[in-house]
Specification:
720 residues; alpha+beta; Rossmann fold; Elongation Factor Tu (Ef-tu), domain 3; Alpha-Beta Plaits; eight-stranded antiparallel β-sheet; seven-stranded mixed β-sheet; 16 helices; 38 strands; globular; binds guanosine-5'-diphosphate
Amino acid sequence: MAQPTGKKDYKRHMPLNRLRNIGIIAHIDAGKTTTSERILYYTGKSYKIGEVHEGAAVMDWMAQEQERGITIVSAATTTFWTPQVVPSQALFPEEHRFNIIDTPGHVDFTAEVERSLRVLDGGVTVLDAEEGVQSQSETVWRQADKYKVPRICFVNKMDKIGADFFATVKDVEDKLGVRTAILTLPIGKENTFKGVVLLLEKKTVIYSEEELGAKYEVKDEIPEDLKAQFEEERAKLIEKICENDENLLERYLAGEEISVKELKQGLRKAVLSYDLVPIICGSSLKNKSVQILLDAVVDYLPSPLDLPPVKGTDPNDETKEIVREPKTDGPLTMLAFKIQTDPHVGRLSYVRIYSGVLRSGSYIYNVNKDSKERVGRLLLMHANNREEITEAYAGEIVAIIGLKETITGDTLCEDGDKIILEKISFAEPVISLAIEPKTKSDQEKMGIALKKLSEEDPTFKISSNEETGQTVISGMGELHLEILVDRMKREFNVEANTGKPQVAYKETIKIEATAEGKYIRQSGGRGQYGHCLLRVTPKKRGEGYEFKNEVKGGAIPREYIAPIEKGVKEAMENGVLAGYQLVDMEVTVYDGTYHEVDSSEMAFKIAGSMALQAAVRKAEMTLLEPIMKLEVSVPDEFMGDVIGDLSAKRAQILGTNSRGNTRIITSFVPLAEMSSYATILRSMTQGRGNFVLLPSHYDEVPKNIIEQIVSERGKNTKTE
Ligand code: GDP
């Protein structure tokens, strides 16, 4: 087993308890980029800060992100931080190393969010103090719940007109259903916001200037006008912390004074057990509270040691669970969570090391591909430079140059000690469009470019339309595909024409049915013999597909079951009603016959495919369409028009809320009705409306529309 060797640079060998792998999560425009920038600035990496609107943000590496002002690509950035605001009360006063994993703000890029959540240990959720909890924050919050990521909330933009800290805290409690631990009280409001009171430490932090790097002053006195509120909120906070810890609760009830550090320890425990979410207010743009936030990351967010060891299974026996502790002397275990093509160094594979030591020049084993890969060079990515290293350890996140076959979600480990970690789950694409190169001779180049882009992004898929021979790309939304086409032009020099975006429908069944598939050719010479009986049963929405074998008494020999499933899967992939993928059903093979000589895997595969097609035709087929959650915010006077238009779009209005003069209308609406909605809303509201569209679920398409779709696809006439 590998042990760290080489030069003892203490920063490189920082103990695991001094590592924080964190991600900054936010609704678009809440201030994630600005906050990330400030963090990089204050953590002392020397680089020139650029305001977001100047398009020079460091984390936004790619040109089109800068143009659009959004972050698409997860980059992992390494920085260092020593708690500084009230160091005497810091739980861990030493220097810490942060790996900041960038997560995108736009929900079209859920794949990016999912993959980053999988590898980070703690999250900072940035909220807009005027807008409160917006729909993307809600969505990402739920995703983070799924990955059990402890979080802190940063209520940003306290300097903005309309900012309301306590309304936002209430929003967090109501919408996200969590218990909050308010750590700061704002001093001043909107453009007079000048600092905060630290409730636990009983200190006042005042920023007299707004400039980047402006000094702040820490005082013992609480401002007179905040004293009553301070007492009240501090008591509430202490009560919440103590409620969560029996020992503290007993002492609290006995009226004992509990020290700040003990309270912090109690809060840390509650954050790590997902019982409390600390909330801090500030303004990244005006450089307020960023240091407080960084101190809180050290105090309350987990190190790799605080989390349960990663679990996987034995690739040779899926029932055998394997646990890997975060130790450098454990067997190497890594997850590739991001592939990025870098213009200077080529293909970068970002990995999270869960256990062991990774060395440049070594060979590692890719479990998913069953192949060996050579680790060329290892890089640590800083905000403005890349540092070449020779070794990386458990708990770290690094980039590898040299891996050829590895894609997002693959497990990498030692050849002699194999493990497979759970794959990263990605949403299925909801929209697709036909694409062709502007110049015919670019066909091959386009193929290569698309392949590279799809390797980077698992929610971006390429296929070809069997009838027309056209290349079709699919993704999570119009913007997602637009950006990929744009990247193809910039990075690969291929210009393309694209067709109209098409919604990715799915097919399913409504009742149970059975049918048989017979593929028998027995005229002279060696024949073909495959015969099976299948039952198809509907499953609930989103439950996917399951295959069962109930064949008894060897009616079909075991070795032909897998080929039958292969045939079933192929048929489901191609669809039956209108050529869309079949989903949400259980397929059971329960009987069949075989022939000693003529049976083959191929014959059973064809029989499986035929049986499936026959069975689903008898099972009341229907189409499912992606339904989006739409949140439109408009000034009051446009509300009637917007709702009227939504009703015409088959929307189901879920509710309306007010925030100041703005009305927020939430609805479910079919994606098929949403093309060019940006333009429609703009003209309907004189440019004053905003909206957010998130994939929500699939639902049945109304009957009359199914007929239209099916006849357009012209596939329903296909009979055997
Ligand atoms: P992102 O989309 O979440 O990355 O948000 P950005 O960091 O790009 O910020 C969106 C907009 O909000 C930009 O115009 C920022 O200048 C602005 N912004 C960010 N933080 C603050 C803040 O603390 N106060 C105010 N007033 N504006 C802010």
